[in-house]
Task: inverse folding
């Protein structure tokens, strides 16, 4: 896995070096866009989605090679660029100044020009450019004969689903699991597994089984994410505890607490939601309420249910189970 | 030409009907995105870029059919979607509330949610979705064997160039012709001609000649646009005279006037630039200054020079000249 991670990093570095040269020839001023995109992209560490692509390929291949083929590396790199694009736009939409242990692209550009609208505009342009780069890298991958258009479809489906998920999020529908499925499961599990399957020239039956496995796993991944963000060890997660609460996110924890606890008793929670300046003491009180009212237990149980559903989807499926079980553990049983 | 326009409209209508169905299955709330994209796209009238694609194909084909093949219609429709995407994002960046005789997507969404940031965020999402749709429609076009990747390259090159052009515009570099070339010439002339050429399986020499013809023509097109916006008949152009001045755009007219007229004498111009509430009387005084100082004559001459350069690029080129000469007239000798 580490070897794959390193190869994805190298592919991204080469890609950015090419794009830097291409951009210099067209518009040297626009190098600041490449700088921003590269800086954010190279700060991403886990390259999880390349590992999921590799697992998709292994699951449909009888005798998979130990080293992932270059196509997996390219697909992983393209999905990393897709993620950079999504994060660049989302961080402006959510007014997030921090990302991956550094400044968000939005914060960097806003501060550079000392102008919110100009910074936001150039930030959106940087995202637009990253989107074109992601498609470009992806469309060059040689898929098996007859699978090229389906692979492109899988790529666009990821994009559409993420946009719709972000839309539901912005509208605050409170439909947490559907939002998680569209906004995160799409490009973290469903899309990458499908792309891996297509690289392995999978049958329709195998692709459908991958899809059934992916849906609950993607939601479970994001539930783990919110549990870690609220109850995890910041030293391990790299995210300050209470970030989601301070950002006012409608997590499954918050939605459950609101449904179960009368308004009069929700003070400790409601008082921190969406308040970036909430103190650690206040966050601790809200967190304690989430435990006491059963929200934590509820979300943990739901995660276990989804995890079991993913496992069940593999029963009798025309897939090699082992690489998929490994992926499920990686995505769900994590402490970071 | 009118038949082609109608076919592009029909293709877009069918595409949106499909996308509406696809979206209902994923996220019914997101139909508002489709509504916004379709409304803006169908309000565009001239479908100029499809006509340019057709001319590119005709220029490299010995005995072109009277009716454009379906691939030209699809390419034209995809470029219309690309333009919708660019306009959706640009109108928010430029804080433009009007577009194509109606409200911009940004204004519609901002007013719907009575919240500037939420409206802007959903507007950017709508643009992102349109971008994915444009790529999707384009990538399904069956190009001749060996030309598929080059066609996709042409599509991404258009996008990159427009982003860089918009970046230069936002930064206010004052490098007007380079900005026009990147921001407008790219997807109005260069890209569409190249795509038409690739549909006709053009030789490298023919593609290079199309490129040499396209570069000056694209800039000339945009110079005609600013002349019409400042001196044209609003009844014919559909744009109120003085819009560019009120928006504070750094047009070639303004850049020339600033270079030639001492600051002390530029009052009538400087007082209206970037002032949306400038009166018609003030606009008339600024326009008069642009004539008196020779800016209008300068830009008209420059347009004639570029037009001649485009014509010269065709001398000895392995291209049929007639369809290209027709396109040049359509783009440059227009009063609307």
Result:
């Amino acid at each position: 896995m580490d070897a794959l991670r390193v190869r994805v990093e190298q592919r991204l570095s080469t890609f950015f070096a090419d794009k830097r040269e291409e951009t210099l020839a067209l518009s040297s001023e626009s190098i600041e866009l490449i700088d921003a995109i590269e800086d954010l992209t190279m700060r991403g560490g886990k390259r999880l989605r390349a590992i999921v692509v590799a697992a998709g390929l292994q699951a449909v291949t009888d005798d998979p090679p130990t080293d992932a083929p270059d196509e997996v590396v390219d697909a992983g790199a393209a999905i990393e660029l897709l993620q950079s694009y999504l994060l660049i736009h989302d961080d402006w939409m959510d007014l997030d100044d921090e990302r991956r242990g550094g400044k968000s692209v939005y914060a960097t550009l806003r501060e550079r020009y000392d102008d919110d609208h100009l910074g936001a505009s150039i930030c959106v342009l940087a995202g637009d450019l990253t989107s074109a780069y992601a498609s470009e890298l992806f469309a060059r991958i040689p898929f098996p004969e007859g699978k090229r258009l389906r692979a492109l479809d899988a790529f666009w489906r990821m994009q559409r689903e993420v946009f719709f998920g972000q839309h539901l999020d912005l509208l605050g529908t409170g439909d947490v699991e559907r939002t998680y499925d569209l906004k995160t499961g799409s490009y973290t599990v469903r899309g990458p597994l499908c792309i891996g399957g297509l690289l392995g020239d999978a049958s329709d039956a195998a692709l459908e089984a991958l899809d059934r496995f992916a849906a609950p796993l993607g939601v479970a991944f994001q539930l783990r994410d919110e549990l870690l963000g609220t109850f995890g060890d910041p030293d391990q997660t790299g995210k300050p505890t209470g970030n989601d609460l301070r950002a006012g996110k409608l997590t499954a924890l918050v939605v459950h607490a609101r449904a179960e606890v009368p308004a009069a008793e929700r003070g400790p929670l409601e008082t921190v939601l969406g308040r970036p300046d909430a103190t650690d003491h206040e966050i601790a009180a809200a967190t304690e309420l989430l435990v006491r009212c059963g929200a934590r237990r509820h979300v943990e149980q739901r995660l276990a249910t989804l995890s079991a559903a993913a496992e069940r989807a593999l029963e009798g499926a025309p897939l090699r189970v082992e690489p998929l079980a490994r992926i499920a553990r990686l995505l769900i049983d994590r402490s970071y």
